[in-house]
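Sample pair:
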Amino acid sequence: MKIIKKMKKSSVWILILSLALSGAVLSEVKAARGVETDRKCSITLEVGGDLAGDFAELSQLSIPVNLYKVADISETGSYTAVKGYESLDFASVSSETTAAQWEQKAQMAQKIIEDEKKTPTDKGTIQNGKGKISDLSVGMYLVAAETTLSEEYEYKFTPYLLSLPNNYHGTTGNDDWVYDVTTDLKPGKEERLGSLIIDKTVTSFNETLGSATFVFQIEGVKDGEQVYSDVVSAVFDTAGTKSIRIDGIPAGTEVTVTEIYSGASYDLASAPSKTVVIKASDEEEAVHVTFTNTYNNKLNGGASVVNHFANEEGVWTVEQQSDSTKAGE
């Protein structure tokens, strides 16, 4: 019995969980001067996250950012929701408003935008880790960066509220209003996945011997770590071509497929191993490898059953697959 172990690297979001919302200006702040409500503001946007580690790739990507104005600000620093965002209830904001409550308001604003398909008030783009949006009117904005793709990862950003102007009295002791604000995005990333197709051709076949089974070992390595291992099979009862599709392999994985069993009466007419790099399935079609066998005129029949083991949330299951080309049908 051939034991098969299948490992998929978990698609786990790596999130920057910051409770210090830079956009939260409290209505109770006693600024030295009132807000200049007719003054123009700017936002300098930076990628945020660990650019030396998990998020290093972000400094090389172009990231579109949308701004949605959700509230006006008065000379005294209090907020009034603009039309369509009244449910955000800025009248309840005070020095007791928590970071979690500000986050909840940001989520509510995002839902309103999605449900009503609202148009951004302003737009900008982050290039080389930084971008700037100028000539903005004062008020409260939702900062919503768009999902951005690289060859191997999908990056999403937590939307958050940002006030223009801002006031950092609580952290710096300076109660001046700041009209040119610098803020970090809050990124998360997830592996993109791709698919592998093994195309198996038998050019000649001896029907007297019955069905013929061909077995393939699949090993995947990414960044020096084994992220995929499995064994699959194709069963033939006539000459022709069959395909085995394997989904859910992390993009960027170097996969080596080896034909480890060809049946006693069939010889390989192609290389026994093929190595390919998996591409994200929504970027390209599945990556193909091909193997060809032909009847060798020997009268030795044979068959096999592949035991497929899978671990889902810590629970192991086993499924016998005599022919992986039929799995999932």
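The mean pLDDT is 84.
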